[in-house]
Design a protein that fits this description.
The protein is an alpha/beta fold. About 35% of the residues lie in helices and about 25% in strands. It contains 8 helices and 9 strands.
Length: about 240
């Protein structure tokens, strides 16, 4: 009998997921299906649970209540999943060296790494900077390099935690363009953002969180034109959710 894992981590299904740290409830009864398609974008005030939800869906932290399944499996190794944190650490090597390290960690044969590194450098628009020390890149360039490292493992599912935070408009556009390219190639992107404009530009569907609860979810166009909940209407209008 074959013991092969699922062909895909999708859909990712969160069923009444709760995560508690000490006496603090970080996620509270989250039920959500992450299916193939255009990016799913998480929005909500600071402290609403967006980062924790991403980490849980990646499989990095255990749930206190409920369960998460990937392609129908509760124990699915994250071989085809990748995550980009808000403040990625650059290794003390060149931009290309950072990607090469990620490729080696992903098990890519040594003979294939040079060509794959060049391909990823082009994908994230860092041509001409391959030999530059990664820590001497600008903030936006480092974020693109971190994206290339995440893509080194050819993920089918990519989690991005506020990837454009603190970036200027040009750097933000560069990251958004990469997200569109990756999504067009069939990678499921799940990202959080503090920027409603970015959510409108990228999202296929929206998930609004507040105080660890899922307030509203649905297709982006419907969410922004006809929000169903009072909280969503206030958030879209730029009002504070208390």
């Amino acid at each position: 009998m074959s013991m092969r894992g699922p062909l895909s981590d999708l859909p990712v299904m969160l069923e009444e997921v709760g995560i508690v740290a000490g006496e603090v409830t970080i996620l509270d009864g989250i039920s959500l299906t992450i299916a193939p398609g255009a990016p799913t974008v998480l929005i909500g005030p600071n402290g609403s649970g967006k980062t924790t939800l991403l980490r849980a869906a990646m499989g990095l932290i255990p749930v206190t209540r409920g369960r998460i399944t990937w392609g129908g499996q509760e124990a699915s190794p994250p071989d085809r999943r990748a995550i980009l944190f808000q403040r990625p650490v650059m290794l003390r090597r060149s931009a290309a060296g950072n990607i090469g390290y990620a490729l080696a960690a992903a098990g890519v044969p040594r003979a294939d790494r040079s060509a794959r590194t060049a391909e990823l450098i082009v994908m994230v628009g860092l041509q001409g900077l391959a030999r530059r020390p990664a820590r001497r890149l600008s903030g936006g360039e480092q974020q693109r390099l971190a994206l290339a490292r995440a893509l080194a493992r050819s993920p089918a599912l990519l989690f991005l935690d506020e990837p454009t935070q603190n970036l200027d408009p040009a750097a933000t556009k560069a990251i958004e363009d990469i997200v569109r390219t990756v999504a067009a190639r069939g990678v499921k992107v799940v990202m959080s953002t503090h920027d409603l404009g970015e959510a409108k530009r990228l999202a296929g569907d929206i998930v609004l969180l507040h105080r660890g609860r899922l307030i509203e979810q649905g297709p982006a166009r419907e969410f922004f034109t006809n929000p169903r909940t009072a909280e969503a209407k206030k958030f879209i209008a730029g009002e504070l959710l208390i």
